[in-house]
């Protein structure tokens, strides 16, 4: 078997159609059919049931597809990394989540350019989850994200923890209280906006069993309370804001899930609910929104920096140096770290 045969099989398996696979690969249908037949002959196994429309994979084909897809992805990653090693880009391509842009990132980039006048920096708004694939494909060289990742190709360091603040409409009954408690916020509609969830295996247990758990309904807009006879759910709470509430045995009365942070703050400004945001966003929409500190010490959002293990862009040490210089100027506590190449 060879890569042409494998890629032909993957295209056919993905699209369940020879004609669609031909369009995607740029190969003719007879060529695709021949490559698939050669692969099946070499293996002595039928992978595709051709007598159904759309095409079906055989049981052996499903198993082979699952395993070979991961291998081909690794081959593509290794190929991309090898090309970058032989001819590294002069530009530094940085991925970031929007909440980081409202914080110190602009100041960090300004500091980096001050010490490296000739550096070309490209910034890309991309979610924490998508940054991992973007690093592998070479779309970005480094990423600022809010979530820890476990990936064999990626290394990351924790830069710091940023406090969460409560974003409330100015007319809200709690808006005048400078320091808030989660239990006092539980009867509000909580607006959720994270597109990446926490990799948590078990739900945090309530720290105060006397607190009545209230069921959250995140899209239907109907309200319902959990009966006193119901047991708390044992399903993992992986949405970051709900997880924070769950650590104190609390579920918000109602939730609404939106596509991003800006939409969430727009709904808060319109008086449609409240949300929790990193402190760096406390200057956004201040005409309609007030931001109040949370009393809870663990109410923080981490900021991670991640890059590839086997290829560290030559300008990344300069970026880290700029970050730490900004932290020192701002009086932010940090632990100095560095990336290391695994080659």
From TrEMBL:
GO cellular component terms listed in the entry, alphabetical order: protein-DNA complex
SUPFAM superfamilies: Periplasmic binding protein-like II, Winged helix' DNA-binding domain
Membership in a protein family: Belongs to the LysR transcriptional regulatory family.
Compositional bias segments (type: Polar residues): 202-211
Region described as Disordered: spans on this chain: 202-234
InterPro entries: LysR_HTH_N, LysR_subst-bd, WH-like_DNA-bd_sf, WH_DNA-bd_sf
Top-level taxon in the UniProt lineage: Bacteria
Keywords, ordered alphabetically: DNA-binding, Transcription, Transcription regulation
Species per Swiss-Prot/TrEMBL record: Psychrobacter luti
Gene Ontology molecular function terms on file: DNA binding; DNA-binding transcription factor activity
Name of the protein this chain belongs to: DNA-binding transcriptional LysR family regulator
Ranges of residues in domain HTH lysR-type: 1-58
Signal sequence bounds: none
Pfam families, A to Z: HTH_1 (PF00126), LysR_substrate (PF03466)
């Amino acid at each position: 078997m060879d890569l042409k045969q494998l890629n032909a099989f993957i295209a056919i398996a993905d699209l369940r159609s020879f004609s669609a696979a031909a369009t995607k690969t740029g190969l003719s249908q007879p060529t695709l059919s021949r490559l698939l037949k050669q692969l099946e002959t070499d293996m002595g196994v039928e992978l595709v049931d051709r007598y159904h429309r759309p095409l079906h994979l055989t049981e052996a084909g499903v198993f082979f597809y699952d395993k070979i897809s991961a291998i081909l992805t690794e081959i593509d990653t290794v190929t991309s990394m090898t090309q970058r090693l032989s001819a590294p880009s002069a530009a530094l391509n940085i991925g970031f989540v929007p909440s980081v842009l409202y914080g110190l990132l602009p100041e960090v980039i300004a500091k980096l350019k001050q010490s490296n006048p000739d550096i070309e920096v490209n910034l890309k708004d991309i979610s924490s989850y998508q940054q991992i694939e973007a690093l592998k494909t070479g779309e970005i060289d480094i990423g600022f994200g809010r979530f820890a990742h476990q990936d064999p190709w990626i290394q990351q360091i924790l830069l710091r923890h940023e406090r969460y603040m409560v974003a409330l409409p100015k007319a809200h009954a709690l808006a005048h209280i400078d320091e808030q408690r989660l239990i006092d916020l539980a009867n509000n509609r909580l607006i959720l906006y994270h597109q990446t969830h926490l990799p948590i295996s078990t739900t945090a247990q309530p720290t105060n069993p006397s607190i009545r758990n209230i069921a959250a309904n995140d899209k239907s807009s109907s309200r319902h309370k959990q009966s006193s006879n119901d047991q708390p759910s044992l399903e993992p709470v992986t949405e970051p804001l709900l997880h924070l509430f769950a650590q104190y045995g609390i579920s918000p009365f109602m939730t609404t899930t939106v596509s991003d942070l800006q939409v969430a703050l727009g709904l808060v400004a319109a008086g449609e609910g409240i949300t929790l945001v990193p402190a760096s966003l406390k200057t956004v929409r201040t005409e309609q929104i007030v931001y109040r500190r949370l009393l809870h010490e663990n109410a923080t959002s981490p900021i991670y920096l991640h890059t590839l293990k086997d290829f560290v862009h030559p300008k990344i040490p300069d970026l880290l140096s700029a970050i730490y210089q900004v932290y020192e100027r701002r009086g932010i506590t940090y632990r100095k770290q560095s990336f290391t190449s695994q080659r």
